[in-house]
Amino acid sequence: MEAQVILVNEKDEVTGVMEKMEAHRKGLLHRAFSVFILNDAGEMLLHQRALDKYHSGGLWTNACCSHPLPGETVAQAAHRRLFEEMGFDCPLSEVFQFTYRTDFENGLIEHEYDHVLMGIYNGTINPNPQEVNDYRFIPVETITRLLQEQPAQFTSWFKLAFPKLIEHLGK
User: Fold this and answer.
1) Active site residue: 10, 64, 65, 94, which one?
2) Is 65 among the residues known to form the active site?
3) 64 an active-site residue?
4) Does the structure show a pLDDT above 70 at 54?
């Protein structure tokens, strides 16, 4: 069975479920999450998406992103995918949500109600090569500079979520 996503309205209220790729072809709003990981040095874990991902392959982004499955909470899904993609798990807390829409050159559309979660981790990372081409912890100031100098190297959702997270951390 193909993976399904949870369709939602602008208030994150469930309106149905749909096969993931169909939702991305139609551009329907669905629930998603983005996990940001910092270490004790204040550096952020970024990963370069696998080159053959269905969109945004080779671009740099936060620790992991995905969609909860029907019947799964955002927190359950975030822990599951963090382990599946990066090979570790850690305590996470949800810090904010936002909605975005990005149209990709291949005709797919990300239209997501994105729950942003954050955690602190200093241990071993064992990334899944089907998901991750490369990874590294980078100082937040360096990420800010790279986003200004090389924005095309980052995923669309990262470019939106990162400044919101930095604003949240500053409060």
Assistant:
1) 65
2) yes
3) no
4) no
Give residues with Cβ within 8 angstroms of 145, minimum separation 6: none
pLDDT in tens, 9-38: 999 999 999 999 999 999 999 999 999 999
Q: What are the boundaries of each domain within the chain?
A: 4-170
Count Cβ atoms below 10 Å from residue 16 Cβ, excluding itself. 13
Catalytic residue among 2, 13, 112, 149: 112
- pLDDT for residue 55: 62
Residue with tokens 């040095």: 41
Name which CATH class applies to 4-170. Answer: alpha beta
- Span 148-165, average pLDDT: 94
Residues 63-94: tens digit of each pLDDT: 999 999 999 999 999 999 999 999 999 999 99
